[in-house]
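Q: Could you fold this chain for me?
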Amino acid sequence: MLQNQDLEKLNKIQLIEHLGVVQKNYFRIFAGPVIFLILLLLPVIWPDFYLEWQESGALGMLIWMTWWWVEGSVHVAITALVPLFVTAIFPIAPAAEVVEVYSNPIVFLIAGSCLIGATWKRWGLGKRISLNLLVLVGNKVRSQVWIWFILSAFISGFIADTITAAVFVPVAASLLSFSGFDTNSKVWESGSATAILLAVAWGASIGSLFTPIGGGQNLVIYEFLGELKGSSVSFYRWFVNLAPFSLVLIPLVGCYLNYVVLRENPSLEGKEEFYKKELGHMGPLSRGELVSGLVFVIPVLAAFLHPIYEELLPWFEPPFLFFAAGFSLFFIPAERNENVLSFRAMKFFPINVLVVWPSALALAEVLEISGLAASIMELLRVFAGPLTFGVLLIFLGFVTFVTNISTNTASAALVIPIIIGMYVEQGLNPIPLVLALVAAVNLAFAIPSGNGCLAMASGYGLNLRTMFKHGLILSIITLLVATGLAYLLANYTAWWGVI
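A: Sure. Below is the predicted structure, expressed as structure tokens.
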């Protein structure tokens, strides 16, 4: 236990890790709640204000949470509880409905992956994988960023973005821990460590768009497209229409991460000879490593094969399989007196990860129930028309904004049907615009509420200020590129937009 004199020697990030809140920054901390209260009361003070008080309050809560995430004086796990605190006191949304999202299936996926990840750290499997990656790829940070980014981007198209992050973030965190970044504060303060975690988060985020099973957001739009067509859309037609966006946006995000976020190319601790020597000291796989690795492979394979057995076993869903796999480790022996997962291993459980994503879902729920997103959408109705660059920029820009603040799946489910309705009412074909919007719902890079990938990485100490700054810039760049590409495809090709 640290004494008061020891706490005085810690920097801001270390204080947050130990105490949760930096007391000397109360003025900046209270700026968030003050903004919320001002916006909540604005429609009462100014009756002609466009938004209702519930909608205005939801906007205030969004700004409050974003401020705390970015300013960095409040622990990310405490910020995650803001939706519960606000809705318990102010009825901008029913608190009972907000609480329900904390039992979302994705929460079980994250919990399961974290349970398995804790065993990897306890028995050394994460260290073994990290050492082998360092031997194979080298210890240059840029090489590590590229390999994590490419792997995450490719895999996320087949087992969904959040599952990909649940698979790779704990492994990347193990590599960072072995390389000296063994606390969240060290990860936060390191540009190299943040870049590696961003490689997984951003890679999984942007890589998911080229197949319908790349994430919940894609599946939602896939269903809408099927309804518009009157029959199911083939995966091939989805791929043909979205491949141009993948081929342009994935390299763009990778290059931005490696040459803008990561301006220098330092080396992680150690040399190849040291890594090989450490592997030699570890010896053969222990029972704990073997079991934790095999139990991890089972739900990953199930996620890959889910489209095959989905109709036969509809209850056999990957998120719950991840949790079941992690739970089973409590009862599988590793040594004479210890099972693979025990309370000794649970000290490595990253509890932050388990609360960040539900808070993002809760924020999305408040934005939807309050009516804020729908009210803003009504302002855009006048722009529904032929797909000029300006029209595309407005609709893709709005969807990108909503995606970053309220989760990609919520954005797809909430906004896309309204846009489809606007076009159908005018007798216009909405399919080309909807296909372009698939790219927009996959452009979440800035704050943890954007998707499960960002939330997962945030729980391991990712520097949220860096993610917000560069994620905002990257969202704007990719939005402009996606808009330009959609404009060219919609107006100058005959094959695109056909499903």
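A (continued): The CA atoms of residues 377 and 418 lie 8 Å apart.
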